[in-house]
Amino acid sequence: MRTVLSIEDLSIALPKGADRPHAVGGISMTIREGEILCVVGESGSGKSMTANALMGLLPPGVAVDGGRAVFDGQDVLALPETERQSLRGSRIAMIFQEPMTALNPLMRIGEQIAEVFAAHGMYTQTERDKRALALITEVGLPDPAKIVRAYPFQLSGGQRQRAMIAMALALEPELLIADEPTTALDVTTQAQILELILDLRKRRGMGVMFITHDFGVVAEIADKVIVMEKGIAVEQGSAAAVLQTPQHPYTQRLLDAIPTGRLPEARRLEEAPVLEVKGLRKVYRTGGGFFREAREVRAVDDVSLSIARGEVLGLVGESGSGKSTLGRAVVRLVTPDAGQVLVGGTDLAALSEEELRKSRNKVQMVFQDPYASLNPRHRILRALTAGPIAMGKPKAAAEAKARELLEIVGLGAEAAGRYPHEFSGGQRQRIGIARALAMEPELIVADEAVSALDVSIQAQVLDLLRDLRSRLGLSILFITHDLRVAAQLCDRIAVMQKGRLVEIGAVHDIFLSPQEAYTRDLLAAVPGADWAGENRARELA
Question: How confident is the model at residue 479 (pLDDT cuts 50, 70, 90)?
Answer without folding.
Answer: very high
